[in-house]
Amino acid sequence: MKSIDVDVAIIGAGTAGLSAYKAAIKSGNTQSVIMIEGGPYGTTCARVGCMPSKLLIAAAEAAHSAQHMDPFGVHVDGVVRVDGKEVMDRVKRERDRFVGFVLEGVENIPAEHKLRGFARFVAPGVLEVDDHTRVHAKTVVIATGSSPSVPPPFKELGDRLVVNDDVFAWNDLPKRVVVFGPGVIGLELGQALARLGVTVRVFGMSGSLAGISDLKVRQAAKKIFQDEFYLDPDARVLETKRVGDEVEVRYIKLDNSECIERFDYVLVATGRRPNVASLDLASANIEVNPQGVPAFNRQTLQVGALPVFIAGDVNNDVPLLHEAADEGHIAGLNAANYPDVKPGKRTIGLGVVFTDPQIAMVGLGPDKLEKGKFVTGELDFSGQGRSRVMLKNKGLMHIYADIQTRRFVGAQMVGPVAEHLAHLLAWSGEQGMTIDQMLTMPFYHPVIEEGLRTALRDAAAKLDAARR
Ligand SMILES: Cc1cc2nc3c(=O)[nH]c(=O)nc-3n(C[C@H](O)[C@H](O)[C@H](O)COP(=O)(O)OP(=O)(O)OC[C@H]3O[C@@H](n4cnc5c(N)ncnc54)[C@H](O)[C@@H]3O)c2cc1C
Ligand SMILES: NC(=O)c1ccc[n+]([C@@H]2O[C@H](COP(=O)([O-])OP(=O)(O)OC[C@H]3O[C@@H](n4cnc5c(N)ncnc54)[C@H](O)[C@@H]3O)[C@@H](O)[C@H]2O)c1
Known about the structure:
This protein is α/β, with parallel strands linked by helices. It contains 13 helices and 22 strands. Flavin-adenine dinucleotide binds next to helix 1, strand 2, helix 2, helix 3 and helix 9. Its EC number is 1.8.1.4. Keywords: FAD, Flavoprotein, Oxidoreductase.
């Protein structure tokens, strides 16, 4: 077996790993860096995550718009035809373009900085890659990402069971798909498939919906999506079994009747699991929690006091692309500068679900705020001027403000252009702005941001009332 000595070893060449690599190299503080990748290059985001999902959603939105023009007095005379093969062809073509950019970047990394194979610890600071190379590293960055977590009973469905990766490998759209898990993935893909003409049922557990913790916002979202496709966030599924090339599901419908339906595929989107199992962390004396994830400092990304850092989905903290990139940067820099470990800049929480209407979450939700210490400014999008003009007037926005400081602390919403509203709010939060300061900002007319102002005004009035 070949043996090499390096300053920094990075396990995983996804978004976090590549970001760690760039930061370590840029630090100028290290002689040697190696980035180890076992799977295909290209990143989860570009290959089977953010980008292909948004491409499928874009096709779905085009189909939906074309089918819903009548209220404007604009009619499509004839049928709006969705060609599944063409839809999937564009998804894959454009996806490959995005992956191509990542591959180009990897290609430009010197060969001596790259190692192919799956790494695992065999001792503190010592990794074995497949069975060909032993790497002795002064510091290690773990950036191995996450994988779909599939509950065991679904595994009996064989090739009728699919996860997100499989959807983006389809050459054509199937006719009927049952989705388990109305989280971010299930809701985005479920709605997109439904809009593309696939018969879709989405089943969840215990009422949870796309991670929305504000019950009133969640209820508003549930109603909007239920008006469009079959969604039961608290489903009573009695049996799921394979019958020939189909899957039969017996369940209690929302109207309480029992029903049996057959589907081409079961899309399991019941959450993701950090890729830690095969790393053999125990060999490096790394203690882990019940999920197998080491305890780490979220400012430095350091694992305990060890020369080990953990970044991206694998640390199971905030599994989002921009967080993986930020964490990779901090981890890479600290690994290169070890033992001079410094806290890096973390930003306010920001999450967007690309459904229509979109769902967005910023900062803290009501579940994380102390009862009686905050007020909630509200906007119901049904009467919001610009949204109504565009017939996008569905949704609810909640803005949370701290009674003591009058500062914006968080927001949850379902509504039009939530991706943009959420950015304005996140940037305000980053600046530590009060609701009053936010209200001094300009608001054009007529724009959806005027709805944000309504919610801010409501919050300001409630803050005043809370003080009296
Ligand atoms: C369907 C879907 C849609 C998404 N949409 C969005 C979105 O719109 N916006 C957003 O912000 N986020 C989105 N995400 C989340 C986002 O994709 C992830 O947060 C991000 O890709 C995580 O990057 P990472 O570097 O941690 O992991 P990855 O990119 O998965 O990289 C990990 C790498 O480590 C490698 N590896 C694993 N184990 C080993 C080992 N032992 N040895 C060597 N290599 C190993 C893997 O092969 C992989 O290449 C989405 C995710 C999915 C699944
Ligand atoms: N737009 C985005 O930013 C975006 C898009 C997709 C994915 N992601 C990232 O990927 C992560 C994983 O997404 P996800 O949707 O797989 O996970 P998730 O944790 O968001 O949702 C999983 C859902 O499945 C439900 N569930 C669990 N077991 C179930 C069962 N047996 N039957 C039915 N429902 C069940 C849960 O209650 C939950 O609602 C997200 O947390 C997010 O960070 C982000």
